[in-house]
Amino acid sequence: MTEQLYLEDSTVQSFEATVERSLADRVVLDATHFYPTGGGQPHDTGTLAVDGEQRRVTGVEKKDEVYHTLAGDTPDRGTTVQCEIDWDRRHAHMRYHTAQHLLSAVLLREFDAPTVGNQLYDDRARLDCEYDRFTETDLADLETELNALVDDGLDVRHYTMSRERAESELDTQRTRIDLLPDSIRELRIVEIGDAEDPFDRTACAGTHVGNTADLGEVTVTDRTTQGAEKERVTFELAEPVTDGGREHGTRERDRRERGERGSGGGTTADERRVSASRPDDTREVDG
Fold it and tell me: pTM, whole model, 2 decimals?
């Protein structure tokens, strides 16, 4: 079974692996940092090299194993390969997936509008939720709130939890754990914000940035009706800001190694919120 290393560290851009299965146009590796399509997040792309000869990784899919589709000949079983992830694409997906978590949380808190679907790209994202119809004022308020959360510089972290414990300690309706297949016995929980009282807590297997400050400015671009009491909200993120030429992905790794927390200060988004009393934060987003 392929070790899914992307679940532990989303910042790795290159790694070494061994081919466990070689098919006509696909390989299975003993371990991988390539993210497979799932939860509205597209798969990673990149290269797989043998003795300096590169093959493009054009698709990644998780079934019984994680399959890497290659353009070119597939290396034999037992071959050691050098893998490189297309970082611009991956980092964009990390940013959009994290922003989608924030949007889902704000929609649930402020509009009681649970997320029912989402789709991420490297330059935009959309989210479907249960709601009658958003006004232009609603969209403007959403955008303001999302950018306030970006400015707050909230930490993003993940951990695993047994399904039994999650069902006993978390609000299963809001996390939608009850909708997950019974075969999933261990959940990956992603939290944003204070460890004791996170702004968002979500069961998710996607990749994310390490801090909301790494998202860049959020622009809510549109809304459309998707049927009875179902709305679609689309948004875009500004290009990530660099710090002395260093990309945010590098700074995420630096923060983790130093054990630093987010640097949000001053008035927080929670303090700015109009409604001070809301239901439990926990919920589950496709991921």
Answer: 0.84
